[in-house]
Amino acid sequence: MIHSRAFNIFKGWLATSAPIPGEFFEKVSSEPVPHHLKRWWFCLGGTPAYLFIIQVVTGILLTFYYVPDPGHAYESVQHITYDISFGWVIRSIHKWSSQLMIIAVILHVMRIFFTGAYRKPRELNWMFGCGLLFCTLGFGFTGYSLIYEQLSYWGATVAANITQNVPLIGEYLARFMRGGDSVEENTLTRFFIFHIALLPLTITLLLTMHIALIRLIGVTEYQFEEDKGKPKKHFPFFPDHFLMETIIALFIALLLTLLVVFFPAGLGPPADPFLTPQHIKPEWYFYFTFRWLKLTSLQVGVLGTGVAAMVLLFWPFIDRFLVKKFPGRDLSIFLGVIGVITLLVLTIWEALV
Amino acid sequence: MGFLKGIFLMVLTLIVLGEGSLFAEETKTESVCISCHQAMGDKLAVPVTLWEESIHKKMGNTCEGCHGGDPGDEGKAMDPASGFVGAPKPNQIAEFCGRCHVGVKENYMKSAHYAASLHGTGPNCVTCHHSHDVQKASLELIAEPLCSQCHSFKNAQKIRKAFVSAELGLQEKKETIRYVERRGMPVKRLEEKLFSLRNSLHQMTHTLDLPEIQVKTTGVLKELGEMEGEIEAFKKKIHTRWWVGSLFAGFLILLIVVLILLLKNYEEEDQ
Fold it and tell me: What are the strands, taking DSSP E only, across A56-114?
């Protein structure tokens, strides 16, 4: 009796303090969702968002103990991994979640590309999506460098050398990135700021714009061969789509659990600026660009990578040009397949040597 | 298709024109010792080629580590004022290598090898280990082809036998430590202990004193046994993590199955 009265008082207070009408929740939860979203690979868009939330939470917990100073960074990561209660779990989740986030973003971009969901009026949203992809890769790179182990230190050194070769602004860009003429004390502080402030802020803004545009324009209603000619089908957001997304989130949690428990994050030897390792390798998601840079001269390599990134960013407009120039031929699929095969070949090639 | 052909040809040209200079910044600071000796070729380039394959190279020990001099300045590279000492004479080799390998030098100086070397007939460090292609010390070094160049292999074989069990124990422990390390255990202390055990054992080789070596190998095996307790505790911890993780994964699988059934139920209701 007392409980229900207290609850009613609280409900009344909430209704006056936050007067959101019940219809709003009803409207949101019963919103019709296009039927093609019944297929899981069309739900890949939400996956990076869940993983990003995991990254934010675990990242904040890691920041409690991480020391962004060359003299203490490695020891602090060691302390997190081996001394702090459940530190190994938090660090391993952060590590594996970042890997999965990169995979999820790449798969999502590929799905959008091959289903033509970037076409008018969604060009701007495709560009925001590309921005999210670049930010995710930036997260991976800066985060890996924060460990301050031998490979991550030299990875940062090589990346700074590569940046230096960007035409016109290379020198400034490298100095901005390193905070000086070489990888030194300021570099770690810069990377830390990029990783915990600049990139999260950018990715949050881009994600907000990305989701806002999806809400404003709506998703592409994709029709499969067997559905053609039939009336468009929809299903309710709640409980159907909500359950689907929950299942995907739980599947990610399952995958993360197995990876964390059976392959916990390790630690290589600490950074030694006076000893160049025999084999410098970036993380797997940069293998393709690393192999490409080895194949060409540094300037050509950097230009090529930049051009590829620009092509990806402005693809909706390039695609429109191609459609006009070669009517009746779907060149985007053909070029997309060539692009994916090239990426895979370069990645596998680098992994094998 | 001319448009695509053009792009393809352009990419191909860029690749062909490439010089693979990704590490240009690193090679800029390459030691002048290496560049100069390589440029001179023949006999003078041999040390560089041999060093490339050595344990010294792997451990980051470059030319100036042994020979002194300034590797960053052509003029000072071989200047005694920069600490350049060049190649040692045979009777200076033990002192030369002993600047870093202190324990080894001390034990070698107790041995019959050293006593013979004072008369100009005994082996020094490079006789067994070579000068530039120095490899990681192993039991393979105590081998008939090498020892029988000066004397019978009989005594050396006894020494080798005394080492086998301890050497195998060290190897096995190293693999076990790798195993627990890959599964997230802090092995730094164990690695340091193993390193020190291995070093003290290998230093002992140079005394050639069989009874002392047997005492040492017994001691090493005892200490390896003591390390086992800590490794077992790590393994137990790993298995606990696996069990807890598997149980949680099982719970998640169950939850996923329940939600899939629930979803199917809703879909059937919709139809």
Answer: none
Question: So what's the pLDDT on residue B27?
Answer: 39
At A185 the pLDDT is: 82
CA pair distance A234, A236, nearest whole angstrom: 7
As separate numbers, helices (DSSP H) first and strands (DSSP E) second, chain A gives 15, 2
Interface of A with B in 252-291 (CB under 8 A): 253-254, 257-258, 260-262, 264-266, 272, 274-276, 278, 280, 290
Locate B183 and state its tokens.
Answer: 């599964």
Please name the residues in contact with B224: beta carbons below 8 A apart, sequence gap of 6 or more.
B166, B169, B170, B173, B197
Minimum-distance CB partner of B22 among A81, A272, A294: A294
Residues with Cβ within 8 Å of B181's Cβ and at least 6 positions away in sequence, in order, are: A266, B187
The two three-digit tokens of residue A188, written as one number: 């770690």
What is the least distance, in Å, from the CA of A293 to any CA of chain B?
6
Place B6 in a pLDDT band, splitting at 50, 70 and 90: low
Q: Is the pLDDT of residue B10 over 70?
A: no
State chain A's mean pLDDT as an integer: 90
- Report d(CA A19, CA A7) in Å as an integer: 17
